[in-house]
Structure formats: C-alpha cells, structure tokens
Amino acid sequence: MPTITIDGKSVEVEKGTTLLAAAQKLGVYIPRYCYHPKLSVSGNCRMCLVEVEKAPKLVTACSTEAAEGMIVRTASDKVKAARRDVLEYLLINHPLDCPICDQAGECGLQDYYMEYSLARSRFKMADKARRQKRRAVGPHLVLDNERCILCTRCVRFCSEVTRTSELEVMERADHSYIDLKEGKALDNGYSLNIADNCPVGAFTSRDFRFKQRVWFLKKTPTVCLGCATGCLMEAHHNENTIYRLMPSPNAETNTWLCDHGRLTYKAVRAGDRLTKGVIKNGLIDLEPALREAGARIDEARGAVAVLGSPWLSVEDNAALARLAKDSVKTENYCFDFASEPGIKDGILINKDPAPNTSGTGLVKTAHGGLSLEELSRRIAAGQIKVVLAEARAAGLLKDTLKAAAPLLVIFAANKGEIPAGTYATLPYASYFETPGTFVNYQGLRRRTAPPVEAPEGVKPLWAVVNKLAAYSGASLQLDSAEDALKGIVFK
Ligand code: SF4
Ligand code: SF4
Ligand code: FES
C-alpha cells in the first residue's frame, strides 16, 4: 500500500489507485472531463494535469497510479497555468452559445472556466471550426457537434456499459467529431445517461431540452418504480411540476437509470391522469364514486374479492388487506405475487416489471390470504361477484376476469390503465405525490419521497381505501399510511 503526499497531506492508498482517486480520498478535487469512475480511463482531455516531484512533465492524475513516496502538487503555478492552457485549447472551437444551451448552469466548460481560467479568448469567432449543429440521434437525444470537446465518454458508455457501440470518433485531429456508426441508431434503452455523462452541452435530452433552466430546479431524492430493481434517483422539479429524473449513484443498485424508468414521471401530468372517479364511463366526484362502489360491495357481501398489487406500496397493500379482513370481512383476498427476479439485461432492467413483489410478500406474511391461483379459481367458478383491484394487478387475472365478468372496482392513477368493462374506478395519488415504502428484488427497503403535490381532491390510496371501508362496512380508522402498517414486520 503506497503512501504519497498530495498538497502537503499524506495518504495511504491501495496499490493501483490513481492520483485522482487518492486526492479524492483526501478531499482534494482535481478537475476532469474525460474521467468517469464507471468508465475505462481514456486520459485524453488533459484537464487533470498535476505536478509530481522529480517527474519531467506534468502528468494526468486520472491515469497515473500512486507510487510509494510520490509528492504531488495539484495547485502549483505550473498546474494552474496548464489548466488555463487546456481550457483555452478546448474553448478555441467552442461555439459559446451558452445563452441558448441547455447545459448552462451545469456545464463543465462554464464551471471550470470560472474556476480555473477567466482568460479572454485570443481566437476570433469567425476563425472557429464549424461543426454540425443540433440533430436528433435516436429517440431521446440531440447532438450538437460544435459543442463537443471529444472526451469520448459517450463512446465509452456505449461500448462498455450497453455494449451496443453505436458511437465513434470520426476523422482525425481538428477534423474529429462524434457520430453514429453507419446503420446504427442510438436507442439502446439507456441512452439518456449519455446526456448526463456529456460534460458539455453536446448531447442533450430531447425530453428535457428548453423546459427549464437548471438553476430553478429543486431536487428530491426518491426511488424508481419502473421495475423490481428500484434504482435510486432524484426528481428535479419546480412549481409542482417534475421536469426530469436523474440517477443517484449508489453502491447497492445503480449508477445509471434506464430510459423507461427515467420517463416514468410523465404519467403524473399525462392527459389521461385521473382526478375524479369513474362509474362505467362517466366521470364523477370521488365521494359519490366511493358511495356507489361501497353500495355494490355491500350488496355482494360474502362474494367480494380484494387483490393486492406489487405496483403499490407496502402501506397501500396493507390498507387493502385491512379493508378485506376488517371491513368487508372476506377471506377472498390475495397478496401472493411471484415473479422471477434478477437483472434481465446484465445492466439494470429487472425481469420483474413490478417494483414491490417483495413488499407484498410482507403483507402476505402479516395478513395471510389466498394464492393468486386459488383466487383466480374462485373467480372463474363464479363464487366472486365483486373484485377490488389495482389496475395493473387486475391485468394479472385478465383472462379470468374477462370470462367470469365480476363487477370490477379498480384503483387507477391514469385512465389508460383501466381494464375494459370496469364498473367503478377510484383515482389515487401517484408515488411522485405521496410517500410509500417499497422493497426491491434485493430485499432493500426504500421509500419514495413526493416531489410534487397530487391534483386537488386526489388522495393517497390508503386514504381512498379508508373512505371506501366506511361506505362498505366497518371503518378502518386509518389516520396515516403508518396506521395501515400495524402487524407488518420489515426484515
Ligand atoms: S459528445 Fe459529449 S460525451 Fe461525447 S465526446 Fe463530445 S463532449 Fe464528450
Ligand atoms: S432499471 Fe428499473 S428501477 Fe432502474 S431505472 Fe430502469 S425501470 Fe427504474
Ligand atoms: S480527466 Fe484526466 S485526462 Fe481527462
């Protein structure tokens, strides 16, 4: 384990540690463009140059390994001058269109220029090399070659992470530019990470472009519910609107986000978002919708089934279990969902598309209930007259429900989720609007945090269930989501 000195401070590091990582351990920041902790070292941008005593030239901190006794300086006059030179070089052909660039506010060029340069350009605008300006590459990205500093992070991401190798550096020297390989499209399912990783505004997200200046955005850490992987992420929002989701890199689950997960926030403000109840096809206020659903449940007493959902939080499933047991008083309820968990593509996307199959298992342990097969058999046998279910969970019994045609009371956040033939639909707040506990495929307990508020009158599902209980049997007296959790044991 070599011991080295960086800016007068001594640090012992593992063999093979780079100077950049060793400095990081000491809390010394070395600027970088091409370096990314999860990509191979390229060493092409030269922004990380540092001085090593007795070395003839400055060295790149991202690609130089620490050796016993090294004395490193990261802020000497020589290093400062080198950083200024590198920035001048990178900015020579840069279009400087910051006022209309979506990266402004989080751009590596802007930030480092302010921190390490502040030099006036010796280059005339008219002499700058021209490159292709904005063009769509793939469903989610726009590429502006003129802004590119050729750090190759995008190229390495596509060859090392997704292994789809769509991108390449074309030509040589100052003719170089990034482009798609012939016949390739940038649609690998993780492409929006390229916009995050691009240190300048060359690759930008088609979804986020021009929607909001980044300095207006507030950040709320939350969890992706796009599948059982349960990636950690941040919702970036302003004035009760989410504008983008960004990964929160962590050791347990994810460095990146898949494109599907990253765009899940769009359902919150989609045109088909439900803010009222639906009886048959007519919209009505929540209260009369609950009264009507409650009356139908009451009529069918003894032949009512309640289906939990691996798409709902532990709290909301627990509230449904309480509804079945304590209010409707039926034994026809099910929180038994099996799915093969595991990473489908070797990167992040899970074989289980539901985020809380493990969490429903906890509700089953606490409250019991039927297996999905047994509930399905009872519905098919005509023993069930009314089924209460979350929309996507109802899809798991699609054929049985279609054949037996019980009266369906569905909890749904968006109209597009409602199964055909549903009698009553009750809206609920999405997990971008209300907190909830989810257990991912690794058994990690994670809680969503609401970055935005639900539309007026739309309540969390546990609260809707609480009101429905009052209309269809005994009141559950739930004052909070936590009240529903009584009896649930988290491992
Ligand atoms: S497009 Fe962005 S990530 Fe790709 S090489 Fe250029 S600057 Fe780097
Ligand atoms: S892999 Fe799953 S949890 Fe992760 S971002 Fe994609 S959909 Fe969301
Ligand atoms: S970060 Fe070291 S050369 Fe680019």
Describe the structure.
- By secondary structure, the chain is of the alpha+beta class.
- Among the domains are: 3-75, Ubiquitin-like (UB roll) (Roll); 277-484, Rossmann fold.
- The protein is 26% helix and 18% strand.
- It has 14 helices and 22 strands.
- It has helices at residues 19-26, 77-92, 108-117, 153-161, 192-197, 259-262, 286-299, 314-328, 357-367, 372-380, 391-394, 398-404, 461-472, 481-484, and strands spanning 3-6, 9-12, 49-52, 59-60, 71-73, 135-137, 141-143, 167-170, 177-180, 203-205, 218-223, 232-238, 241-247, 277-279, 282-284, 304-307, 333-334, 386-390, 407-412, 424-427, 436-439, 445-448.
- The radius of gyration is 28 Å and the shape is elongated.
- The structure holds iron/sulfur cluster (2 copies) and FE2/S2 (inorganic) cluster.
- FE2/S2 (inorganic) cluster is lined by residues 32-35, 43-48, 60, 62.
- One iron/sulfur cluster (SF4) binds at residues 148-154, 178, 197-200, 202-203.
